[in-house]
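Async update (no meeting this week)

Hi team, since we skipped the sync, here's where things stand on the single-chain job. The sequence we agreed to prioritize is pasted below, unchanged from the tracker. I ran it this morning and attached the output directly underneath so nobody has to dig for it. Comments welcome in thread, and please keep replies under the output.
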Amino acid sequence: MRMFFAVTLEEGIKTALLAGQEALDSWCDRAKFTEKNNLHLTIKFIGEVAQRDIPSLEEAAMAAAIRTRPFPLTLQEVGAFFRGREAVLWAGVAKEPGLMALYRHLQFALEQQGFPKDRAKYTPHITLARQARLKVGIETVKKEVSLAQEPMMVRALTLMESRREGAHLIYRPVFVQPLQEKTTKK
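Output:
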């Protein structure tokens, strides 16, 4: 099973991202846009695991989530990772303290379960398109494509499975762990 941890998105954010994709389309010679149901914020990509590893991943999710309070997710500007002439186009996400805490707590919890630590710096983003060929430079696209949207509150961490069904990628939630809500004193 191919697994990753993610924040699933509310409809309002997805609508803003779809509008962003529509705007991006006019700046691309070609692009493979992410389907609406697959839009998400990856917290940590795990990769291929055996079914017997799922309980360890669930334990890591629980350990990270109980140490993290809900936090806002705010979209920022469009960006790109380039590989030759092709790019992955993405929506940047503000590095809110809660988001970065969730990432650190999850990294630590996964290490405790025997999973390797990320070596690369975490760049929070939502993939909008793959195999994109831009007609202009990314700086022009950043100026022209806006992703304005009210922040959404992140209230859970989701363990997702990624599988291919024909030509489509399907992302399926396997385990959802709510973040620690603020307790009230009595």
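Quick observations from my side:
The beta strands are 2-8, 28-33, 40-48, 71-73, 75-83, 86-93, 125-134, 152-154, 156-165, 168-178.
The mean pLDDT is 93.
Reply here if anything looks off.
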